[in-house]
Amino acid sequence: MAIPQQKYFQEKDFENTEYVATLNNSTTQTSLPKEVAVPIVEIESRSIALLVPSGICTTGHSLVLEIFRKNDFNEVKTKDGVLRDQKKILSLTAKVIQKESNEAGKFYVSLEIKQVVEKEWKALFEEIQEMKTSRAHTFRIVKGGG
């Protein structure tokens, strides 16, 4: 019997990220508005990739990121800065090492992490890896691969 996949999977299950970042470009002294966050596309052990609007940064720039769970950021984006700091997962400093455009006029940027509280970074990295593993396992089960 075929499993009706639409019953088990929804589009939101395949979103690229559950995390977003605000950013401040230390090199140009510019930043996104406080109520704007960009999606985190990928996290590796010492790097992070974002999807950013045109003109916010380029290769070689230094950025300061604040990382939030997407739902927490949406909840506090219009609130004061104190509440926002309580919902923030971590802050980090990174350097843009690669930039490439996509079809929608935005840019994928790869960042090398320069400064971060290691304990906080490790906890976030492990949480994301567990989420990826869980989703991949669920997908294999539904496809019949066990």
Structure description:
- The protein has 146 residues and is an alpha+beta fold.
- It has a single domain (5-143), classed as Thrombin, subunit H.
- The protein is built from 4 helices and 7 strands.
- The chain has helices spanning 5-8, 70-76, 81-87, 118-143; strands spanning 19-25, 30-31, 38-43, 47-52, 62-69, 90-101, 107-116.
- Strand 3 and strand 4 (47-52) form a beta hairpin.
Query: Under the CATH scheme, which class?
Result: Mainly Beta
Strand tally is 7
Strand order of the largest sheet: 1-3-4-7-6-5
The largest sheet is: 6 strands, antiparallel, barrel
- The CATH architecture name reads Beta Barrel
Average the pLDDT over all residues and give the rounded result: 81
In quaternary terms, these chains amount to single chain
SSE succession: HEEEEEHHEEH
Percentage of residues in strands: 25-35%
Alpha plus pi helix count? 4
Distance between the termini: 15 Å
Radius of gyration: 17 Å
Estimated helix fraction: 25-40%
Give the CATH topology: Thrombin, subunit H
Categorize the overall geometry.
globular
Classified in CATH, the superfamily is predicted glycosyltransferase like domains
Quickly give the structural class: alpha+beta
Number of domains: 1
Contiguous low-pLDDT stretches (5 residues minimum) are: 1-16
Give the SSE layout.
Layout: H1 5-8, E1 19-25, E2 30-31, E3 38-43, E4 47-52, E5 62-69, H2 70-76, H3 81-87, E6 90-101, E7 107-116, H4 118-143
Antiparallel strand pairs: 1-2, 1-3, 1-5, 3-4, 4-7, 5-6, 6-7
